[in-house]
Design brief:
With 477 residues, this protein is α/β, with parallel strands linked by helices. Helices cover 39% and strands 22% of the residues. Bound molecules: adenosine-5'-diphosphate, aspartic acid and magnesium ion. Residues 14-16, 46, 215, 237-239, 242-243, 245-248, 272-274, 318 line the site of adenosine-5'-diphosphate (ADP).
């Protein structure tokens, strides 16, 4: 399968696109639209909206011996899935699927009882619990497609998405995945069927269930697109595409019509939830165009992510923010900058597998930012042996991304005057020169993003942003 399969589209539908029977109807109609254009489709679905959070809550409840609480969550989920299946399917098909759904929930209940009995929730068992979300949604969607003449064929993602055993954030094994897709999914496409699989989940070569990390269904879509040399990857979600910022913070955010892989990756990494950060890589490696589209407004053109960014008169394409970060200040007046000192500091983070987002150094101190995590006390205790260490949580990173920063002078001045009323802790301009980011307190994020958005997107370049669709924002008298 090394040549491009131009007519193949990998279509990923997020949680809101399969949240209930109506959403699944819309999803089926979108897939039909592609099939009617003689395209082949592989469909990747998330769990129904909020199901992953609820499964995590059930696992956590079982882990602290709250068996009743865990089983109550599972019972509510069972009803939701059965009710949705009943609404979607005709009598005969429902009678066929209902026992399969019940069987999955019986297995989930046994698992939750087991966790409660042992009184311990391991990362491996946690992955197994959350995997039920995508296992169930993909079965229902496949059955719904089958009934609607789309020849839906359910594929258990765990048979194709081969990963290592790093539970909670497993690393996909691309060569093995490509081979499995050729063996198990390609024949279905060749037979005119529409394979439907859950995103986010995979299994080790030994068959133990794993997950790719939160938001990982996008990543699955990219792995399938890359592994099958698809002509395009479509990420269907609940907004019109990649916007100039999170529309939940700025309702007047504009759709970005085209964005480069590099810009999209940077945005995703720095907190724009619309795309999982790892999604871009398999697509870039194989030069597969990625589209972000709205399943509630399928007519909209969405955002096209391509290798090269179009020239843009505005310096930035979008603003992202990432919360729940911690700043660590390492002060060591005597030893700093001496040979091997930075290595000693970074080795401590490495030992605890803690990724660093941003670093700034002065004569006597290093400031680092990391995702808040439960290992911080240990990390700081160990750093305390070679320096004075302080850490402060509830911080956030605001990041402005755009390849055209390079061509604009005085941008830093504009950024910081737009947020001059906010206390800025650390500043960085990435080596890639396509992002500018700074750290602030978590509670200042919304205000900072709104001020920056107002400043930089007041008169946006119409060739890059969908200015015509701008939502007028009510002005207070
Ligand atoms: P899905 O379940 O389809 O994967 P997500 O909730 O993971 O959807 O991602 C879509 C959400 O991402 C949007 O509803 C929006 O609130 C948020 N978002 C954050 N930043 C952006 C951005 N720059 N552009 C578009 N959406 C964004
Ligand atoms: N269902 C998973 C989550 O909520 C994966 C995804 O939706 O992308 O994180
Ligand atoms: Mg998502």
């Amino acid at each position: 399968m090394s040549t491009v399969r131009e007519q193949l589209v990998v279509m990923k539908f997020g949680g809101t696109s399969v949240e209930d029977a109506k959403a699944i109807e819309r999803t089926a109609a979108i897939v039909r639209g592609r099939r009617d254009r003689n395209l082949e489709a592989v469909v990747v679905v998330s769990a129904m909206a909020k199901v992953t959070d609820q499964l995590l809550a059930a696992a956590a409840a079982a882990g602290r011996d709250d068996k009743a609480g865990a089983l109550a969550i599972s019972a509510r989920l069972r009803h939701r899935h059965i009710d949705t299946a009943a609404e979607l399917l005709d009598g005969e098909r429902f009678v066929h699927l209902q026992p399969a759904i019940n069987h999955e929930f019986d297995a989930l209940d046994d698992l939750l009882r087991g966790i409660a009995a042992v009184g311990e929730l391991t990362a491996r068992t946690n992955d197994l619990v959350v995997s039920f979300g995508e296992r169930l949604s993909s079965r229902m969607v496949a059955a719904a497609f089958e009934q609607r003449g789309l020849q839906g064929a359910h594929v258990d993602a765990r048979t194709c998405i081969v990963t290592d055993g790093n539970y909670g954030k497993a690393v996909p094994q691309e060569a093995a995945i490509e081979a499995k897709l050729a063996e198990l999914v390609l024949p279905l496409i060749q037979a005119g069927q529409t394979p439907v699989m859950g995103g986010f989940i995979g299994a080790t070569a030994e068959g133990i269930t794993t997950t790719l990390g939160r938001g990982g269904s996008d990543y699955t879509a990219a792995l399938v697109g890359g592994g099958m040399h698809a002509g395009a990857i479509e990420i269907w979600t609940d907004v019109n595409g990649i916007m100039t910022t999170d529309p939940r913070i700025c309702p007047d955010a504009l759709r970005v019509k085209t964005i480069s892989f590099e810009e999209a990756a940077e945005l995703a990494y720095f907190g724009a939830k619309v795309l999982h950060p790892a999604t871009i890589l398999p697509a870039v490696q194989k030069s597969i165009p990625v589209w972000v589209l709205n399943s509630r407004n399928a007519e909209n053109e969405g955002t096209k992510i391509t290798a090269l960014a179009p020239r843009c008169a505005s310096p930035f394409k979008s603003i992202a923010a990432k919360k729940r970060l911690t700043i660590i200040d390492v002060v060591a007046s005597r030893m700093l900058m001496s040979h091997g000192y930075l290595k000693a500091v970074f080795d401590v983070f490495d030992k605890y597998k803690c990724a660093i987002d941003m670093v700034s150094t002065s004569e006597v101190s290093i400031s680092l930012t990391v995702d808040s995590n439960e290992k911080l006390p240990e990390i700081c205790e160990e750093l305390g042996k070679i320096a004075d260490v302080k850490y402060e949580g509830r911080k956030a990173l605001v990041c402005l991304v755009g390849e055209d920063i390079r061509g604009h002078n005085g941008i830093a001045g504009q950024v910081f005057s737009a947020v001059s009323h906010i206390n800025v802790r650390m500043i960085s301009q990435g080596a890639s020169e396509i992002n500018m980011s700074f750290m602030i307190d978590e509670e200042d994020v919304e205000e900072a993003v709104r001020s920056l958005h107002k400043h930089f997107f007041v008169d946006p370049d119409e060739t890059v942003f969908d200015v015509a669709a701008r939502v007028p924002v009510a002005v207070k008298a």
